[in-house]
Amino acid sequence: MPHLVVLTGAGVSAESGIRTFRDTNGLWEEHRVEDVATPEAFARNPALVLDFYNQRRAQARTVAPNAAHLALAGFEAAPGWTVRIITQNVDDLHERAGSAQVLHLHGMLTQMRSVKNETAVFDCPGDIALGDLAADGGQLRPHIVWFGEMVPAIEEAAEIVATADALLVVGTSLQVYPAAGLLHYAPDDCPVYVIDPHQPEVSGRRGVHYVVEPASIGVPQVLAQLVVG
């Protein structure tokens, strides 16, 4: 079966009500990104960072998957294509919509890990407090890839993109690396559909189709085209 690979970014979650720093002048829920989303911020003020992500985790539970999430899950469940989703988002809206093949590049709000071992990852159903320790004695922190940290899943993501028969790039500015470079791993004859009302530019790539729509409208449109062939 042909293989559809989907790269999703903050614009998909934003339609469900999750704010992004890209659309708020560099502020994320009124905080500077440098104060809540870097390892230096955590070293400087761990209580602030933990509280910030506790709030993000709680807020994510109040929103629901939108039409883009649901369309991708329905396409995965239907015969004809295999589907893999690679997301920059840290919420679990793709999974809650029903998608099973989801790779999170930047971690997940619903997981936490020890500061002593980044592979010691646990479910995180509630808040993380300063003083909450993993079994190895390390402080627990959100399982989030902060700015300045390595992206462990990037090689697996590149391998997935290299197998694509069609690639959807949805709701991403294509400005955050290394994720922004993933589309260049797609085969030369692979059509690329960029779905975003801001129409981020793709340079050095032929066969790019721009769909200047929000994800909830553009994703169902493109999936319908793929079914028709």
Describe the structure in your own words.
The structure is a single chain. The protein is α/β, with parallel strands linked by helices and 229 residues long. 30% of the residues lie in helices and 23% in strands. A 6-stranded parallel sheet has the order 5-4-1-9-10-11, sandwiched between helices. A hairpin with a 2-residue loop joins strand 6 (107-114) and strand 7 (117-123).
The gist of it:
By secondary structure, the chain is α/β, with parallel strands linked by helices. It is 30% helix and 23% strand.
List keywords for this structure.
six-stranded parallel β-sheet, 8 helices, 11 strands, about 230 residues, alpha/beta, single chain, elongated
Instruction: List the uncertain runs.
Output: none
The succession of helices and strands, N to C, reads EHEEHHHHEHEEEEHEEEH
* Strand order within the widest beta sheet: 5-4-1-9-10-11
Anisotropy-based shape = elongated
- DSSP helical segment count: 8
How does the major sheet shape up?
Answer: 6 strands, parallel
| Straight-line distance between termini | 13 Å
Percent of residues in helical segments?
25-40%
What's the overall average pLDDT, rounded? Answer: 92
Rg of Cα set = 18 Å
Number of strands: 11
Strand content of the residues, in percent? 15-25%
Report the structural category: alpha/beta
Write the layout of secondary structure elements.
Layout: E1 3-8, H1 10-14, E2 27-28, E3 31-32, H2 33-36, H3 39-44, H4 46-60, H5 67-77, E4 82-87, H6 93-97, E5 102-104, E6 107-114, E7 117-123, E8 140-144, H7 154-161, E9 166-170, E10 192-195, E11 208-211, H8 215-228
Parallel strand pairs: 1-4, 1-9, 4-5, 9-10, 10-11
Antiparallel strand pairs: 2-3, 6-7, 6-8
Helix pairs in contact: 5-8
